[in-house]
Amino acid sequence: MLPPFPTEKKVKNGMCTAQKDWGMQDIEAAVARHPAHRGSLIPALQDLQETCGYLAPEALAVLAKHLSISVNEIYGVATFYTQFRFSKPARHKIQVCQGTACHVRGGHMVLEEFEQMLDVKAGEATKDGQVDLERVACLGCCALAPVITVDGLVHANMGTRKVPAILAPLGVKEESKAT
Amino acid sequence: MSSIAETYTQAESDWKALESAQGPVFYVGAATCGRAAGAGKTIERLEQEIQSRGLSARVVETGCIGPCCLEPVMIVQTPGAPQVLYGGIGPEEATAVLERHGLGGEPCAEWALGTMDGSVWKGVGPFQDHPMMAGQVRHVLRNCGIIDPEKVEHYLARDGYRGFLRALEIGPDGILEEVKASNLRGRGGAGFPAWRKWEFCRSVTSETRYLICNADEGDPGAFMNRSVLESDPHAVLEGMLIAARALGATEGYIYCRAEYPLAIHRLEKALGQMRELGLLGKNIQGTDFSFEMKIKKGAGAFVCGEETALIASIEGRRGMPQPRPPFPAVSGLWGKPTVIHNVESLANLPQILVRGGAWFAQFGSESSKGTKTFALAGKVNRTGLIEVPLGTSLRHIIEVVGGGSPGGKSVKAVQTGGPSGGCVPADQLDLPVDYESLTAAGTIMGSGGMIVLDEDNCMVDIAKYFLSFTQEESCGKCTPCRVGTRAMHAVLDRISKGLGTLEDINTLEEVAMTVKNGSLCGLGQTAPNPVLTTLRYFRHEYEAHILRKECTALACSALVEYQIDETRCTGCGACRRACPVGAISGESKKTHVIDPKTCIHCGACLNRCPEAFAAVYRQSGTVLRRETPKKKSAAAAPEESAS
Questions:
Q1: pLDDT of B444-460, one tens digit each?
Q2: Is residue B155 part of a domain?
Q3: Interface predicted TM-score (ipTM) of this complex, two decimals
């Protein structure tokens, strides 16, 4: 009964980075959904990111041709916006909210705990390609701060002590980071 | 016109049928925040129970009713009794409420928050008397949490689109007069009168005009617009129709953050329903008024909340602001006259049209009319979405509605207006919340984020936090903003590490003024506000960091020393194993010691020390903070909730 959020893992908003199989025909279909008009650029990029999980170079080449603009120009626009990524996403995505409400309730400590346990910095993926760790400005669940999302699912009232339990189902164990 | 009249009759009779249903009805708040708190599981459980017991009960998904701290919330309706609002309803509680209230007809006093119709029923008082509701006037939020946002019939049954139908009758000039009488000011933060923006735009001759709804709620700590879009999307869309009619706009855009997937989903659904009802497209309701709307997803750039940057983003360019004039009302999207309104400004319009501008103007203060929604969050007991008449004092909002700070700590300051705003200290809480008073105090109204700070929050750290946000979000067009925010952040970082000098305070003030005066758009012009207000009201904290290397709030990690209380340490070794730099030594079952020279102040030891011992404590200068040991059951709690 619930709309596709958040009970289903695939959040249909271009934010989910679950790995998918795609081919050139998927890219061409995604591009063709948008009229050949400059105003289509950002929606088309969002569509492509949803299709491929990231902005693959081959996808941008197709889009550039469709909109009659250069690939450079597309990169110029795409790199301005934090939503777009240019490398393959990891299997899982963890977003740690760094909004004001989360910050005053210790959201930065939650992020540090994730960084320590995963042995990555925010914005990086773990070496085994399992987890992407991202910081986001605000998820709009400020009343339940600090919050994080795991593959689009919101976890409220986080704390550093809850981090191991979040990571365990993703195959990350507490011991793995110990040196 | 007959079709809409028929729809109204049908919608109203459906609504009445729902309200007087034979079986129990459960209205569960399922906006993003409700779902984050577990409303999905509550709904699942209710549906299971209803199915397995073969009950003639219904579950209705509504939006957010406001008290986020009490999520998941649920309204229960049984035949012949008033609706009762419950808070904190997880799956177990849902079963209990279903059995005792839904079937047994007796309220569950332990979770009841009040009745919805203002009556006293079997010992449950009205929800209106709940302290969280004190002084609240819900106009924008009138449908939030009451109706199913995905059913246009619910909206129609509660006077939906009647404002727009009246707008069609009285015509553009009539609408303008009504809005002028209401003196509605922009709810995005700047407070520019809506009617003046419209007049400005109408004075330009053009075939095409655009209307944009700014739903790029990027302020960290604000969620008013998300809540309205998720709980009552039609109110915003009706507002757009009204504004479009007044302006003669032919095309509208809703620029919504991609971080709000549920809001986008509900807007898309609502647009489809409007089209079916003949409220969108060519010759709406048989008049000469034609209007189309599109949703544009933001791509994660805070600066796109600024109107010229937002336009650039819709045009498919980098979201960088343009110099004004020309103002967008004269030359905006694709060079055509464009009016941009905040979500809440638009959501106010239907009621202004239905009840009249004079009705609207009787709420609020002399210069700021109407009500305003605020997202109350941070160190406050009752977090949530509230709506109060403008002019209400900050003290009332925080102490009465919000119930003060948790844990008996004292409120230190209130941060309003997000990264563009500032901090109002606790001794100025009697300040009325209106555009002018907040500006005089050095902050701004902003879109309505209100973050309460208590004694554990360091004001240098707060200023640093906002500057790290603005320096990252600065688009880089204007040098003072691009370089200045970075420079201020560097100085604040130095101070927070105990490396600052008194000269740094002067530097901060100087750079702040340069950034304020030398930037094109609102982001740069207001970015120094967090620094300037904290310097104005909390200079002593800056000085403590600089002169005594002391962070009284124990928030600046470099100035905090971690130590182990030998009377509490049992030598379990959890901290030793957790320490990333090997600064902790000690034999098993003997007191451990932290070497201050090696310690990097990461706090891992404090986090790992079992809560039952709580042997690690923090110290900064003369300030010392011990955590109180908790019983074993409390220490085991996090595992449960995470599974």
A1: 988 888 999 999 899 99
A2: no
A3: 0.85
